[in-house]
Amino acid sequence: MTTKPKLTVGVVLFNGFATLDAAGPMQFFDQLHDEIETITISHESRIVYSVPPNGGCPMMANYTFENTPPLDILLLPGGLGCRTLFHDPRYQEFILAQSKRVKYILTVCTGSGFLAATGLLNGKRATTNKKAFREIEKLSSAVLWVQHARWVVDGNIWTSSGVTAGMDMVYAFLTMLFGTERLKIVLEIIEYTPSCDDTHDPFAYLADA
Amino acid sequence: MTTKPKLTVGVVLFNGFATLDAAGPMQFFDQLHDEIETITISHESRIVYSVPPNGGCPMMANYTFENTPPLDILLLPGGLGCRTLFHDPRYQEFILAQSKRVKYILTVCTGSGFLAATGLLNGKRATTNKKAFREIEKLSSAVLWVQHARWVVDGNIWTSSGVTAGMDMVYAFLTMLFGTERLKIVLEIIEYTPSCDDTHDPFAYLADA
């Protein structure tokens, strides 16, 4: 019996990240730790806070942009703190370099703004947090922004709506990789009933506001 | 206009905590950071991992049991790592001391095992993760364990079923404190549709297995 190498997911963290944008998907990865290794990456400081300077959820990064090991999957969370980073050359360089290497890129909530700012979503369908929709879509008119979607898949890029939508997107993503039977056990342990319909978006109306 | 003091929530962390047991409620607290200050507490090491020794979600603790400031609310997450801590005298002492001071105690998933082991649930109704139900209920026959419940409230103690049930419990808890209108804005930002019926428990069947 050969041991299949684990998939490595890199979760980018920064001050002002939305706790669940990162932690929602990470709970799924934790349940699949035989198949998936999760690493955290930050370019700002080793410890980041969801409510900076030092409030909310304190999460630690294992790596920086400079020493990140090879990744299979890149996960970009959003949150209030990402707004000042979309056009940060360090972020753009890291994300563009990773985009050439990884198999998949996943974004949660306003995390899709990172990809919009780099041009990686040009001509592609994508979504974002519905309360921030009008703000994020301004980052690029070359993106085919989808207002009504819990999550959107275009090629190897998966983008989700706000915060908890990331869990539904990751459930769909992991089902594609590992099958519904494997994920059924995960759902039973975390007692989660996912939304399995990417077009069921009860919050799409917020983008009209 | 007087400024109302914030409520302080203390989240106990340990190696092998379930990421979302802590992070699900914390996302709600983050959105209410004008009303709630969240602090993290660990007695083992400053950085804890959801998949120990150093995998999964790395979270940092701001305080230890010895220097924890006064709390209004104590939150006890569960996870694989809590099993060896239920009868740890340091945990029992801390939890019993806090129970005399805090306004509310909240547990998520197998976190209710901490309270069962201390005797704080004696004669009270409580629930836990449904896949771990038979294991956790063995901790105390003096607890009125509720198999069919998304979450249970008895006095000032709120216990939830597995992992994501903590978000529904915390939504109900915060609605009690701050009202549905305030929480409506939170739900819109995190795009969450909570289960508002504590008796709607799609995973209760797992406890029969």
TrEMBL record, chains A, B:
Pfam families according to UniProt: DJ-1_PfpI
SUPFAM superfamilies with a match to the protein in the record: Class I glutamine amidotransferase-like
Tell me if Zinc is a UniProt keyword of this record.
no
**UniProt domain DJ-1/PfpI: residue ranges:** 9-174
Q: Which domain of life is it from?
A: Eukaryota
- InterPro entries membership: Class_I_gatase-like (IPR029062), DJ-1/PfpI (IPR002818), INH-QAR (IPR052158)
Tell me the keywords, alphabetical order. Signal
Residues annotated as signal peptide: 1-22
- Stated name of the protein: DJ-1/PfpI domain-containing protein
Q: Which organism is it from?
A: Thraustotheca clavata
